[in-house]
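Need residues for this backbone.
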C-alpha cells in the first residue's frame, strides 16, 4: 500500500495487571494503517487482537495497562500521539475521527433508547451546529446508507434483527465520517448470508467515503477477501505482516501456513485439512524463545531460546520483500522449507 499513513503504531506493549501478577498481552506491536486501506488482524482466540485495538483507541479497561510504545494518529489538525492525549482530546476524536464497531451490537446499543435517539445523540455531541431537523435528516440518511428504511428510526434495538442491529452500529460508527473505523469481529454473530451482505455494503461505503478500516477476526479466509494488508498475531506478537494476496499465496511464517491450512480453499482441488497441532499458550506460561516453537513443524534448535524479531525475509527470487515475518527460518543460512519459500505467482 502506498497511501498516506493515518494511524501508526510503534512498539506498543500492553499488560494485564502490574508487578508479579501482571502478564504481557501485546508485545512490541508495530504497524501502519493507510488512508482507505483495510488492515486485517487475525490470529487464534487470545492472541491479543482486541487488546491491541482497544489500546490503540485508548478504550482499554483495567487491569489492562499500556506499558510502552507510540500511537500516532494523522488527523485533520496534524499528528497526535494518542497515548499522550488527555481525556478531552480523546473524547473529541472518538466517533468523530476514530470509531469502533464492537462484536455484539446488542450489547453496544442502548437497549432502552430508540434508534433515532442513539444516532442523533452522537450528532448532537459532536455537531452542535446542526438543528433537530437536520440531525433527523442525517439519521435517516445514515440508516439508508446501511440499507435500513426510515420506518425503523423509532424502533428499539430488541425490535430489530441481529443483522439490522449490526447495520445500525455501522451507521453510528460512520455518522461523523471518521478517518478510521475499528471493527472487532463485527459480523461473527450473524449468518453467512447477512454477513456477506453487510461486508459488501461496508466495502462500497469505504470506497465512497474513503475511511480506513482495522478489521479484527479469527477468520483468515474472510480477511484474504476483504483486506489489503494482514497482520497475523500469535501470543501477543505480530508474527507476519504482508499484503493479503502475498500472505495467502506465499506465507512466510509457519503459523500463517498453519492457519491457511486450517480452512478449506474456495477454489481448486479438495485437500485434507491439516490445522495446527496443540493450543495457543496461556500468557502466564509463554514458552521461551519463539512462543510458537512447541507447535511448529519446522522448529530449529535456537527457536527454543531466542525470540525472533519481525524482519524482512530474504525472498527466493531476490525481489524486495516488502513484508515481514518473525521467524528464524528467514534470517539467512537456513534451508527454508518449500511451503515457506514460494514465490508469489507460482501457486496462482
Ligand atoms: P478473541 O478472538 O477471543 O477475542 P483476542 O485475540 O482478541 O481473542 P484478547 O481478547 O486481546 O485476544 O486477549 C489477549 C490475552 O489477554 C488473552 O490471553 C486473554 O486471556 C488476556 N486478557 C484479556 N482480557 C483480560 C483481562 N481483563 N484480564 C486479564 N487477562 C486478559
Ligand atoms: Fe517455527 Fe522457529 Fe520460525 Fe518460530 S522461529 S515459527 S519455532 S521456525
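Answer:
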Amino acid at each position: 500500500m502506498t497511501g498516506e499513513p493515518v494511524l501508526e503504531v510503534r512498539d506498543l506493549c500492553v499488560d494485564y495487571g502490574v508487578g508479579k501478577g501482571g502478564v504481557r498481552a501485546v508485545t512490541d506491536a508495530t504497524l501502519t494503517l493507510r488512508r482507505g486501506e483495510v488492515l486485517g488482524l487475525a490470529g487464534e482466540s487470545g492472541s491479543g487482537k482486541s487488546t491491541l485495538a482497544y489500546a490503540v483507541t485508548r478504550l482499554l479497561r483495567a487491569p489492562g495497562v499500556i506499558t510502552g510504545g507510540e500511537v500516532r494518529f494523522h488527523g485533520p489538525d496534524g499528528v497526535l500521539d494518542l497515548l499522550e492525549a488527555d481525556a478531552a482530546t480523546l473524547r473529541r476524536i472518538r466517533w468523530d475521527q476514530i470509531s469502533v464497531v464492537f462484536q455484539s451490537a446488542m450489547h453496544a446499543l442502548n437497549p432502552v433508547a430508540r434508534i433515532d435517539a442513539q444516532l442523533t445523540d452522537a450528532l448532537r455531541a459532536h455537531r452542535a451546529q446542526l438543528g433537530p431537523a437536520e440531525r433527523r435528516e442525517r439519521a435517516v440518511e445514515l440508516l439508508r446508507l446501511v440499507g435500513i428504511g426510515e420506518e425503523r428510526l423509532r424502533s428499539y434495538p430488541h425490535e430489530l434483527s441481529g443483522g439490522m442491529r449490526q447495520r445500525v452500529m455501522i451507521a453510528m460508527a460512520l455518522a461523523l465520517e471518521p478517518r478510521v473505523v475499528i471493527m472487532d469481529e463485527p459480523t461473527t454473530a450473524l449468518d453467512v448470508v447477512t454477513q456477506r451482505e453487510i461486508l459488501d455494503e461496508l466495502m462500497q461505503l469505504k470506497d465512497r467515503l474513503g475511511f480506513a478500516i482495522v478489521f479484527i477476526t479469527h477468520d483468515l479466509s474472510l480477511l484474504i477477501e476483504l483486506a489489503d494488508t494482514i497482520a497475523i498475531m500469535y501470543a501477543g506478537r505480530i508474527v507476519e505482516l504482508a499484503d493479503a494476496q502475498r500472505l495467502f499465496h506465499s506465507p512466510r511464517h509457519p503459523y500463517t501456513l498453519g492457519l491457511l491450512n486450517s480452512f478449506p480453499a474456495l477454489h481448486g482441488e479438495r485437500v485434507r485439512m491439516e490445522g495446527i497441532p496443540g493450543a495457543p499458550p496461556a500468557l502466564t506460561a509463554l514458552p521461551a524463545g519463539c512462543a510458537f516453537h512447541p507447535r511448529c513443524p519446522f522448529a530449529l534448535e535456537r527457536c527454543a531460546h531466542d525470540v525472533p524479531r519481525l524482519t524482512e525475509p530474504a525472498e527466493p527470487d531476490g525481489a524486495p520483500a516488502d513484508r515481514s515475518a518473525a521467524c528464524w527460518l528467514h534470517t539467512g543460512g537456513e534451508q527454508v522449507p518449500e511451503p515457506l519459500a514460494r514465490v508469489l505467482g507460482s501457486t496462482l
